[in-house]
Amino acid sequence: MAVRAETPRYPVPWTRGRFASWVATVDHKRIGILYIATSLAFFLAGGVMALLIRTQLAQPDMHVVTKDSYNELFTMHGTTMIFLVVVPIFAGFANFLVPLMIGARDVAFPRLNALSYWLFLFGGIVLLGSFFATGGAARAGWTGYPPLSSDLSGNGQDLWIVGLHILAISSLLGAINFIVTIHNMRTAGMTWMRLPLFVWTIEIYAALLVIVLPAIGAGLTMLLLDRQGWTHFFIPTEGGQPLLYQHVFWFFGHPEVYVMILPAMGIVSEVIPVFARKPIFGYKAIAFSTVAIGFYSLLVWAHHMFAVGLPIGLQIWFMIASLTIAVPTGVKIFNWLATTWRGNLIFDTAMLWALGFVAVFTIGGLSGIFVAVFPFDWQVHDTYFVVAHLHYVLFGGSVFGIFAGLYYWWPKMFGRYLNETLGKWHFWLTFIGFNVAFFPQHFLGLLGMPRRVYTYRDDELWATYNLISSMGSYVMGAGVLVFLINIWWSRRRSPRAVPDPWRGDTLEWYATSPPPPHNFDKVPYVTSSRPLRDVRRRVEERKR
Amino acid sequence: MVVAFLLAGAGLTPVDPDSPNTQRIEDLYWFIGFWAAIVALSVAIPLILFTIRYRSRGRSRTVEGPQVHGSTRLEIAWTAVPVLILLTVVGFTFYKLPGITLDAAAGEDVTKIRVEGRQFYWQYRYPNGVIAIDKLRAPADRLVELEITAPDTDVIHSYWVPDLFPKFDAIPGKINTTRFRGKAGTYQGQCVEFCGIQHAAMLAEIELVGADEFDSWLTDEARRQETRDSDLGAQIFTGVCAKCHGAQGEGLIGPGLTAATVSNAALVADVVRHGRGKMPDVGAGWDDRQMKALTDYLAERFKAESSGS
């Protein structure tokens, strides 16, 4: 009996539903949106933890949360913001944008892409499930140093390890996907020197992840075996070496910092020229400085370990390598400034976030010079000076960049605008709240306040700075509420977005807003790093 | 001077340095701060000027600025100038470094003290065997060398008194050395590497007294500890026990202490040495004399309280 192969119907019937279509999707744009939405949900969770931390610290000897809860909160706040917010939200941006920007139909491995998203969600649930474990959540800091982390009772720490393992696999799959896509699927004419700068940063983001994720995977496996198995890699009573973990962790952990800042720099490099109505100043310098930052980020890990007593020669090496990174970073900042020179600066919300990024990230970069100089770091290491520094680069840097990207690409992603007035409220509340919350923390660190303490010396100055800092954090919280209102506004009140509302430079604006599943009917041949501007000019010339 | 003092008081610079090494770290702070301020201004001024000068003023989005794609000369300049600034910073660091590590001069009188970080107290051991908890007494105007470590059974801590010396981690199985030469006075510090539930309570204090006074105190204290006539038991109770069992033994993280629970010296010694449940092995490695000081103190203190009530 002859069997007639039935023509496969697409989409498969069960995947047509409103909910099921998101579960079954392998479309890079939908996966990108899933990534971004999930990360924003985790961002709210991490933000609530931050507000609880700041409330506990508003005055000395407060009893808002217990000592154990406090330790769980700062551990999970850091882990959430890094592994569940900043890294995956950039994976979301990259998913949505890379194929569109390089004129491709999708990423190279769409199913693998879906797998990495679902692993991310699963890893996030496992990680936050730590709060429900016997003995409470992980509470050894986001760095999880043994022997403290190997000694902790309960299973919170184990869930933390397993959650990070799942997230590492998810990131690794995503990174491989981005690299293959960028290398192989660029449209005709899209040479490396015409690649959008955001795509450059995703290339380096992905390369760094591929290099360093195996290291953290190994370190976490060893830690898990030390806790639940029979090994003693890091347990000193059995001859283990706790410092080994720190080396492994920071070999991963420092490049991870650049994994979190480079795509934000990429977003800023896309936004500033469009809203300055000029080409980016020094395209090659910005592209190559991205590569340089990525390379040097692999050579600086022990600057997190200046207080562990490394030989002075090593500390000198790590100081010089760390300072070196300031050079390509400075190149980027001055190139962005030069891009605004003699421009037609349009202060839409995306541009405010991008310029805000330049302002606060510079402060974070400069406090980084202080802590890179190891004898000075001996003084302020593990104090609030470092807390201030890392929030200036991770919030003032990464998160400002993320918001710039959200306001810029929102119309492309959803076909609706975000409200500009609400957007400006969101920006100014966050910008002011952020500086009020974190600038005084530099002073607290210089005064001697350590990180990761649930209370502090009952001293008027310490109490004043902490109170100011907590007030600032509430203002930031208000900013996030405005953003949520804005999302609601966008869904309910916004007009339909046009394909190219900002007169952009890159190919994603050539597609409709939102783009159709196949992205483009036809991709224009790329002749410069600003293909869309070229298209616009050709069209306008023809009209004449 | 007055301005500098006010700045230091408000936390705009490291706290008042009272030892040559922390003084040099503050010099480093000012030196880096000077260049950081110049760089900050060279970013802030153009940022503010350009945003005001080149703002759109209602011009249409179709109006483009000049299509400038770069300038090799400018880009070389803002690559090279930061390199020079950073080389200056590295050079100044090398210049100050010997004064910060504060190595002893040949033949210089040095007092060496072992500092052990423990959950959640500091145990000091002087060369003549005297033990102190949390509060360190040391000679003023003489070089003091701290050997910072932690026992294998413990976790990583970090010892820091900001006015006197840069911090170093207390790592099981590793000895880190830091030095200071301070003026007479009392200085506050604390653990700065997260070490568990009572990390925030792991305070340290250093009292610097005249060198002669210190020498005679140390000799007397050795004799007192030998004859069990010192306040070592009270120090241990306050530093080791009270942080979890309450200042009066009323219970806090751990259960309350009563005559019934602490009267059995052997049992107390066993729990203190090996830990029990959530309680870490706070007394691992204590010698008998130290353990006896604690058990005697506990027996005395809690007997006195129960008979008094």
| Portion in strands of chain B | 15-25%
* Strand order in the largest sheet of chain B: 3-2-1-5-8
Q: From N to C, what is the helix and strand string of chain B?
A: HHHEEEEEEEEEEHHHHH
Q: Structural class from helices and strands of chain A? A: mainly alpha
Mean pLDDT across the residues of chain B is 92
Distance between the termini of chain B: 57 Å
What is the total number of structural domains of chain A? Answer: 1
Mind telling me which CATH architecture of chain A this is? Up-down Bundle
State the helicity of chain B in percent bands: 40-55%
Enumerate the spans of chain A where pLDDT stays under 50 for 5 or more consecutive residues: none
Q: Name the beta content range of chain A.
A: under 5%
What does this molecule look like?
- The complex is a heterodimer of chains A (544) and B (309).
- By secondary structure, chain A is mostly helical.
- Chain A is built from 16 helices and no strands.
- In chain A, α9 (283-297) runs antiparallel to α10 (312-340).
- With 309 residues, chain B is an alpha+beta fold.
- Chain B has 3 domains: 2-53 and 72-101, no CATH class; 110-226, Immunoglobulin-like; 232-308, Cytochrome Bc1 Complex, Chain D, domain 2.
- Helices cover 44% and strands 19% of the residues of chain B.
- Chain B contains 8 helices and 10 strands.
- In chain B, the strands form 2 sheets. Chain B has a 5-stranded mixed β-sheet with strand order 3-2-1-5-8. In chain B, strands 4-10-9-6-7 form a 5-stranded mixed β-sheet.
- In chain B, β6 (157-161) and β7 (165-170) form a beta hairpin.
- In chain B, α2 runs antiparallel to α3 and α5 packs across α8.
- The N and C termini of chain B lie far apart (57 Å).
